């Protein structure tokens, strides 16, 4: 046991400077040999404990601040000047309350001095208030009883919003004065210092600044900074070791508690949220990794909705969400979560359509004008195109998972409506990767996969690759060749002769060449004629290649037909198949290749393998 004596510190009490101590005070593991008179003169609590003059030993087991705070308070009782600073103000204020060192027992007592220091030095400063609030964490419940914690939180919120208002007024002054000077200090300069607070105090501070009207982008930065710092050191260790396994359980509990608290503190969700997509994705990954299948349901749903609302801002890394290692699924990524996220975005798009149609009708009634909300350059259409590209990249990534089922892949591929994809090259690439990684899937599943691809939206390069791709079913190859033939016919019918371009009055309809150094000048007839001749040569070469490819296909079809007939000539199924092959041969005959034909609609209606789409273009 540690014994301390501060009788040598007596300054004002000269008559008792040589008097031996008559009181022993036990504070925690420390003992102080003191005198009754100076303590009783300023402390109401000690006066009550020494009501019996015979008492010479007292114990203060719950003294806030421990022996250090009591030693400072005892010095004050002896009349010694003590230094009140940023580091000890919380202890002294709680100790003065605990020892009842108020004006009722002595003028200008310790409680009065500490209150004066708080009002003059601590409360006006955000950084000082945060430091003192951090020290209050070890002084619970006394710091709560004297309302010190709540006053510090209110002071932080008021000063933060005051700085925000001052910064806004400065920007207005700069705007009206014509200068471009910006305030050097960012509004969230104090947000990083909040990382020293425990989770409960941090939550109360953020809630307070939100209620006072602090900007959402500032709140988002504060949440990101606190999350990054508080999660450091809580990384998963080797689960094979028993000690690390126990530590991992505790770390995961802390991680889950931090993430769930941060999600509750996020600003109001919206289509244009101030919370970065990468941060939301990281929170969702953390929730999935640290929770069981039955816990954190509301937190996960909230994050999925937030990501879905601003899915057009996401990149591939944001949606590659690993599966929970403790779950029953064996896939690499959480497909169900992504299905819900994309569905939220698509449902939001449908809601926007209904709302825009309502406003559109009102606009027509009032002004009799029409505005195209679904034009290619509209923000909504561009968002859908971004999401479709994101989906195709995601499909190409998860296609390499050997445990991914065909039904899950098809569900994702068919989730987007037809108008979401202008070109289907990305989806074709993903399907080809899946077929390469999963070579043993059934023919029916292989056919269902290829039905998700719109062959009319494949580029010329993709068509050439698909026509020679042995992993695709023969129906897909024939379909690609058919639409490529239609495309060639349209191209040849549009280029009847070079004189049409030389003397046509509609030459401005053709795109101008960029990067020629002529700026926005018109194309000369000589260049136009040379371009047309070059295109005609390329078309002729392509037609020759197509003829060779079709000839090979016809030979293969004839040989297959002969083998089938020889093996079982009486079977009606083989006869029917032979008739269909003969129809295909006659259909793809190039003898009818002319500049004009009987229309695109009639040609497409003859195609045998017409796809059935889940969504219809409205």
Automatic annotation (TrEMBL):
Coiled coil stretches, renumbered: 529-556
Domain called NPH3: residue spans: 188-487
Cited InterPro entries: BTB/POZ_dom, NPH3/RPT2-like, NPH3_dom, SKP1/BTB/POZ_sf
Ranges of residues in domain BTB: 21-86
SUPFAM superfamilies: POZ domain (SSF54695)
Alphabetized UniProt keyword annotations: Coiled coil, Ubl conjugation pathway
Pfam family, one: NPH3
UniProt pathway: Protein modification; protein ubiquitination
Superkingdom per UniProt: Eukaryota
Family: Belongs to the NPH3 family.
Matching PANTHER family: OS12G0117600 PROTEIN (PTHR32370)
Name used for this protein in its record: BTB/POZ domain-containing protein At1g03010 isoform X2
């Amino acid at each position: 046991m540690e014994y301390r004596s501060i009788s040598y510190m007596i300054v004002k009490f000269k008559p008792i400077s040589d008097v031996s101590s008559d009181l022993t005070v036990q504070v925690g593991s420390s003992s102080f040999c003191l005198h009754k008179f100076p303590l009783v003169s300023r402390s109401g609590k000690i006066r009550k404990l020494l009501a019996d003059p015979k008492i010479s030993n007292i114990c203060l087991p719950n003294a806030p601040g421990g022996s250090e705070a009591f030693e400072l308070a005892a010095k004050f009782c002896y009349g010694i000047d003590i230094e009140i600073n940023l580091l000890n103000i919380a202890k002294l204020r709680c100790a003065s309350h605990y020892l009842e060192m108020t004006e009722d027992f002595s003028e200008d007592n310790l409680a009065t001095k500490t209150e004066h220091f708080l009002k003059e030095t601590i409360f006006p400063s955000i950084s000082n208030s945060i430091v003192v609030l951090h020290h209050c964490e070890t002084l619970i419940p006394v710091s709560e009883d004297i309302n010190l914690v709540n006053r510090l939180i209110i002071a932080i919120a008021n000063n933060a919003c005051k700085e925000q208002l001052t910064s806004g007024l400065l920007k207005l002054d700069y705007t009206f004065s014509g200068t471009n000077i910006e305030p050097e200090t960012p509004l969230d300069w104090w947000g990083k210092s909040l990382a020293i607070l425990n989770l409960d105090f941090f939550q109360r501070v953020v809630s307070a600044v939100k209620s006072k009207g602090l900007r959402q982008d500032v709140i988002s930065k504060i949440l990101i900074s606190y999350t990054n710092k508080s999660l450091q050191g809580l990384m998963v260790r080797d689960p094979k070791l028993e000690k690390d396994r126990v530590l991992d359980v505790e770390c995961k509990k802390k991680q889950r508690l931090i993430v769930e608290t941060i999600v509750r503190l996020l600003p109001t969700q919206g289509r244009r949220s101030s919370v970065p997509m990468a941060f939301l994705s990281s929170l969702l990954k953390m929730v999935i990794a640290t929770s069981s299948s039955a816990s954190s349901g509301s937190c996960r749903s909230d994050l999925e909705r937030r990501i879905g609302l601003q899915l057009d801002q996401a990149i591939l890394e944001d949606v590659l969400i690993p599966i929970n290692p403790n779950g029953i699924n064996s896939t690499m990524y959480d497909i169900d979560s992504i299905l819900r996220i994309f569905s939220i975005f698509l449902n939001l798009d449908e809601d926007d359509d209904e709302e825009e149609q309502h406003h559109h009708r009102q606009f027509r009634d009032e002004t009799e004008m029409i505005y195209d909300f679904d034009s290619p350059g509209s923000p909504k259409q561009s968002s859908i195109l971004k999401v479709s590209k994101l989906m195709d990249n995601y499909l190409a990534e998860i296609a390499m998972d050997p445990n991914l089922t065909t039904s899950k892949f098809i569900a994702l591929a068919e989730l987007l409506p037809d108008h979401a994809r202008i070109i289907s090259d990305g989806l074709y690439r993903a399907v080809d990767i899946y077929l390469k990684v999963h070579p043993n899937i059934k023919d029916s599943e292989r056919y269902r996969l290829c039905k998700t691809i719109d062959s009319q939206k494949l580029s010329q390069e993709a068509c050439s690759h698909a026509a020679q791709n042995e992993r695709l079913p023969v129906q897909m190859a024939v379909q690609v060749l058919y639409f490529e033939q239609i495309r060639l016919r349209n191209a040849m019918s549009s280029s009847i002769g070079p004189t049409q371009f030389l003397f046509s009055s509609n030459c401005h309809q053709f795109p101008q060449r960029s990067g020629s150094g002529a700026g926005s000048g018109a194309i000369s007839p000589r260049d136009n004629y040379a371009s047309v001749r070059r295109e005609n040569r390329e078309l002729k070469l392509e037609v020759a290649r197509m003829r060779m490819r079709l000839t090979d296909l016809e030979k293969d079809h004839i040989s297959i037909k002969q083998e089938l007939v020889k093996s079982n000539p009486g079977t009606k199924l083989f006869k029917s198949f032979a008739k269909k092959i003969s129809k295909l041969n006659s259909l793809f005959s190039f003898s009818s290749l002319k500049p004009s034909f009987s229309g695109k609609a009639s040609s497409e209606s003859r195609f045998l393998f017409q796809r059935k789409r889940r969504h219809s273009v409205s």
